[in-house]
Model the fold of this input.
Amino acid sequence: MPAYLVRSIDSHQIVGLFSADHPRSLAHSVEEWTERDHCEYVELPSGGLVWAGSAVRVPMHTGIEKDADWNIPELPFTSATLSDTWLNVLYGYTPGLRWTRFRAKKAPQSTPAELPEPVRSAQIIPLRPRSQQMAKRRDAQ
Done:
């Protein structure tokens, strides 16, 4: 499954690193954090997030939420770094790097315009049942 680096189009600030099987899935993941229409992405080469120094065991023992003071432990990213191939993308050392904008969201379906006010009031003419209409015609003949 490919990994992507996503950034803001205007400021070029990093939104995040994402893994997705298709750009549509990537767009949905980005939407959880920010407006995808303001972002662009690049597919990353083989590489990853690595722990160069001491690392924690996984799964991390988070403990069981038995008391009100329980907190989720902080993620151990202070000792993590990116692989050289990903750092090359991050620092702009990868030649021919092409950023791709997300497809624009479909515009919401427009609501129909409100009908204009009638120029004059309408007159409602009640219809008679068909049998009464036929009897009236016979009488007229």
